[in-house]
Design goal:
Belongs to the TacA antitoxin family. By secondary structure, the protein is mainly alpha-helical. The chain has four helices and no strands.
Amino acid sequence: MTAKSARSDHPISMRLPEADIAMIDRAAGLRGRSRTDFVREAAVRAAEDVLMEQHLIRMSPEGFTAFLAVLETPAAPVPEMVDLVKRRAPWEAIPASES
């Protein structure tokens, strides 16, 4: 007889309206994931976001002064970004009269 291995997974059960399940199933299908994998990933990502918002950053008064100095320094233009902003958007077609 084989010894049972201890599972480290913990089940979570919830009741959802049929419309919510349909939306979750559709989204999971588009990602090629099972409903369980999709919901687990979404829940963990949401939990990480909340925890990251609560993270306390500590620094010395000198470090904070240096941090503020960097924030107050005017930004230097990045030539590639300036060129990108000046480009015509792909959906802005050139009128036939201009070509």
